[in-house]
Amino acid sequence: MRSSAFAVPAVAALAVAGLSAALAFAAQANGPAKPAAAGHHEVYDYDHQEAWQALHDKSQSPIDIVTAGAAAADPAEPRAIEFSHTHGAIDKVEDNGHAVQVDTHATEATIRGRHFKLAQFHFHARSEHTLDGKHFPLEGHFVFKAQDGRLAVVGVMYEQGKANAVAQEVLDDLKPGKAKPAQPEIDIEGLLPKAHGYYHYLGSLTTPPLTENVEWYVMPAPVTMSKQQIDGFLSHYRRNNRNIQPLNGRPLIRYEG
Ligand SMILES: [Zn+2]
Fold first, then answer.
1. Whose CB has fewer CB within 10 Å in the chain, the N or C terminal residue?
2. Beta strand pairing call for 108-111 and 114-124
3. How far apart are the C-alpha atoms of 108 and 137, rounded to whole Å?
4. Are 143 and 155 in contact (CB under 8 A)?
5. Residues 33-61: pLDDT tens digits?
6. Distances (CA, A) of 122 to 56, 72, 93, 127, 211
7. Can you give the pLDDT at residue 184?
8. Nearest-angstrom CA–CA distance, 203 and 59
């Protein structure tokens, strides 16, 4: 599935990132379903990441979250993350050549007092962020966008344990030959931890063009999936996690939730 080719289509090079490409794809959601990794999809070679180049490279993601190095969030400012309308229609579930991705837009989030809307979510194996050096088998990235274009990504860690019904819906929708999702709707609450504590820092997209000024909120409370479900995601990607990047003195903020 993985190719050594590294191609960035014009749409991604022009704007804020792979995310813009994702949004552009979302706009084509009514078009015919495309086979995985075909056509305009981007494919990244995780075995040769040194070839990836960022325009600015001092504030990159992912990072190792050294929990002892995190400062408590300022109690004088709004700190919580609250999700609403987690249940909504699915536009697309696909293996896009670099991740398993679900396009669904109903969910809204209030993040530290500001309003964001969900653009898509996708999965990395192993986790991209580490907690005190520890990887999890999977990390979900819930990509939120504010009206002014600001991006906030909520990172969720998945560990082996009880089966996850919502993860199963995503996996079922990935079976070959499915032009449309079997489930027209999804409730992503089952993919989010109950505890909304987080580690926050300013970083980047973790795929080319690695654009910076992305707000990261990594939630350390893991959510479970069964071994079979984790293996289901691994059957698409054994490795699509970017290497850990240096913190370079950036503030890391802790919020207990
Ligand atoms: Zn990601």
1. N
2. antiparallel
3. 27
4. no
5. 333 344 457 789 999 998 998 888 999 99
6. 24, 29, 10, 12, 18
7. 84
8. 5
Topology of domain 10-255, CATH: Carbonic Anhydrase II (3.10.200)
Active site residue 98: yes
The residue-averaged pLDDT of 152-156 equals 98
Q: Which helix (H) or strand (E) holds 144?
A: strand 138-145
CA 9 to chain centre: 20
Q: Give the Å distance between the CA of 76 and the centre of ligand 1.
A: 31
**How far, in Å, from the CA of 172 to the mean position of ligand 1?**
21
Q: How many CA atoms lie within 13 A of 110 on its CB side?
A: 6
The structure tokens 């906030």 sit at: 152
Per-residue pLDDT at 68: 97
Catalytically annotated residue among 40, 48, 56, 98:
98
- The residues, any chain, with a CB within 8 Å of residue 148's CB and separated by 6 or more, are none
Q: Ligand 1: distance of its center to the CA of 192 in Å?
A: 15
- Report residue 194: phi and psi, to 5°: -70, -35
CA of 127 to the centre of ligand 1 (A): 9
Gap between the terminal Cα atoms of the chain: 39
∠ CA 232-236-238, nearest 5°, is 95
Q: How far is the CA of 160 from the centre of ligand 1 (A)?
A: 20
pLDDT-derived band at 177, boundaries 50, 70, 90? low
Whether this model's pTM surpasses 0.70: yes
Q: Is the dihedral of CA 242, 248, 250, 251 positive or negative?
A: positive
Residue 69 host element (H or E):
none
Phi then psi for residue 173, to 5 deg, are -75, -15
